[in-house]
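User: Batch of two.

Assistant: Item 1 of 2:
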Amino acid sequence: MFGKRADGKRIRNIDPIVSLTPYLMPMRCDAQVMMDFKVDFEKLTRYIAAKREEGYQITFLEILIAAFVHTVAEIPEANRFIVNKQLYARKDLTVAFTVLKEGSSGVNVEENTVKCKFLATDTIFDVTDRVKKAVEQSKKEEADNATMKIAKVLANPLLANPLVALVRFLDRVGLLPGAIVDASPFHTSVFMTNMASIGMPAVKHHIYNFGTTSMFFSIGMVERTTGVGPDGKAVRKRMLPLGVVADERICAGAVYARLVDGIIKGLNDPSILEKPAENIRYEEVTAYRLDKAEEKRLQEAQKHITA
């Protein structure tokens, strides 16, 4: 309450125009900026194949997550959110995404939502390890993570309206319990989805008014196109489309431009994601810093990479 939240700290020293925009556009649906990008599918597949030969199983979604984590590590301003018309610095670096659960017959029958926490120092190998552990648990038919358990309670027809209204109110005044915030996929740095896994094109998915999600990324089905090769001749290319929706109120357009540029660079050359970002910056309140155990683990990982 009064600007205090479990998942963020209010930023007060900001440009007056920036502080005014939430009053002009009070909801995220007012401030959605939609973008689409395309990255070279061939480069990604070659990288994934090369890593597979080294014993690493890496997916397209994991590369996108790693590129996001790697870039936000250098641009923490992109990891902010707005609640109750106030701007906050997020205390965690998180990514929420949807996975398909497998039934006893091996057929994908329903969805589960996963939210992973990351460190600014995470490499693509760290990201892959965290994501795979979370996905492995969530894909089990009998597994219900905290997110799904809370969703089932809120889905009760007799309880849905009053409980959701209460949750919205507590969230707005900063009194929502930390356990709910941690479980909620709507309280995350970014929500991502791989639409290609269900045969769909990249979508520009809305960002939710509930929660604190400031960005939504989607991967679509591969598109075939024609480009110009090094010799000036026409060549066929396969491109991976990305749909991006962002809350324009959380940072300046120039900051978003740097974020997108960093993510695209990571997708076009995933090898740069194998080491932590070079110029890691933290906002004052961020909790995703290295403790001693994580620092030792990182040093061991760096030795492995350079060996």
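Item 2 of 2:
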Amino acid sequence: MKFLNIRRGGAFFAALLLTLLPSQAAMTFPNINIGLQTANTPQDFTNGLQILIWLTILTLAPSILIMTTSFIRLVVVLSLTRQALGAGTLPPNQVITSLALILTFFIMAPTFNEINQNALQPYMQNQITQQVALDRGIVPVRNFMFKQTHEKELALFVRMAKIEKPKNKDDVPTYVLLPAFILSELKTAFTIGFVVYLPFLVIDIVVSSVLVSMGMMFLPPTMIALPFKLIMFVMVDGWYLVVKSLVESFVR
């Protein structure tokens, strides 16, 4: 029974990803049989095509899930912070990505819990149909994206999609909301990264000016500035401030 619930839950989340596409047709789950045989009927060809589509969706599922969460802003700002420090590859990419993922789960926990309570659990207990579960499951994700999406970016994709001006949030298709959300997240991330960069830029300018005034023009300024950056970053508890600011930026 536990294995059956896990398999049904995985199928539900995979189907939930399909709601990001501009399709209005009801979703169906094809039976998957491993083997090679001639498609003698149109139904056989349709089933094979459905399997190919599902395998493609499962391959892209991690990327789609990441693009609908707070991961974009987190990983960009953390990467810019590392670059501003000038510490090369420290922290490593694995640490930056892992920290961004952990913070993503922390920030998205209320959204995931809402999906679990309103859509997944009722569906697994046969209280609601598949289509109702999908309709309920996409609502918390859309609400999260709407809170972080700027009106300018949303208007841009509404205009490029050549659809009527939405009267409310329900009128905005998910395939229009998603790129607007990603663009808004990139804009916000680079804005935060610029603010993080400023103190380190001041240190670089001061160190460069001092070296030039002392006639030490052939000494790399970055090598001298790095210890001062690290000292300042540690003294102000930099990682604490960066993570705190990132998490609080999602609270609206």
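The chain is about 75% helix and 0% strand.
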